[in-house]
Amino acid sequence: MIRVKICGITRDSDAELAVQLGAHAIGFIFYLKSPRYLPIEKAREIRQKLPPFVNVVGVFVDEDPQTIKEIAKLVSLDFIQLHGKESPWVCEKFFPRVIKAFRIKDEKDLQKIPDYKGKVSAILLDTYVKGELGGTGRVFDWRLAIKAKKFGIPIILAGGLNPHNVVSAVKSVSPYAIDLSSGIEIAPGVKHPFLLKELFKNLKGL
Ligand SMILES: O=C(O)c1ccccc1NCC(=O)[C@H](O)[C@H](O)COP(=O)(O)O
């Protein structure tokens, strides 16, 4: 099965079900303005209950690198996902445990990606929506994700994926991994067990 990250986890039961169904990674949002923001103490609590071989990713937006390091240590994060305007040099401080997110609207948004080669272990391609930094539930033109493969950095496809469109996304783009959040929610940060089950059922064999 394609590697799957379930992002914006805020509840123990959602983490447990996602992992039981086969999620390879779960994401916690440490960006205060997000409706999916997770306090450090709660993140630690969820993290400590996870079995081995599941990666825990912390999502940050233009956060101070020292604060990121402290949170990463406290929560035992496996990867840092940088979702703001972080430069290649900021990313490099966390290499190889770092993923850089790019919000994509058109071909111009791909131009900066090569500068990150060798400084991040993957890029996450998400949808550009004015005034929103992530978790938009909107899809971008997947032909741009296919074009981004030429940079030779593993691609995590995100943005508006849900149990209905995920098979077509994986077949069209063949990304390294996929990332979902709002497409499997009933409210921000609250995953829907039925949608989670539908997602992994549909991904079987991919
Ligand atoms: O989800 C958020 O609220 C969020 C806020 C600020 C920065 C990043 C955020 N999410 C990061 C993710 O990795 C999401 O899973 C990604 O944007 C895809 O979201 P969706 O379109 O809802 O599947």
Give keywords.
binds ligand LARABZUK, alpha/beta
Note down, in words, how this protein is organized.
This is N-(5'-phosphoribosyl)anthranilate isomerase. It comes from Thermodesulfatator autotrophicus. It catalyses: N-(5-phospho-beta-D-ribosyl)anthranilate = 1-(2-carboxyphenylamino)-1-deoxy-D-ribulose 5-phosphate. Pathway: Amino-acid biosynthesis; L-tryptophan biosynthesis; L-tryptophan from chorismate: step 3/5. Keywords: Amino-acid biosynthesis, Aromatic amino acid biosynthesis, Isomerase, Tryptophan biosynthesis. An 8-stranded parallel barrel has the order 1-2-3-4-5-6-7-8. By secondary structure, it is of the alpha/beta class. α1 packs parallel to α7. The protein is globular. β1, α1 (12-21) and β2 (25-29) form a beta-alpha-beta unit. The N and C termini lie close together (5 Å). It is built from 7 helices and 10 strands. The chain has one domain (3-203): Aldolase class I (TIM Barrel). The structure holds the ligand O=C(O)c1ccccc1NCC(=O)[C@H](O)[C@H](O)COP(=O)(O)O.
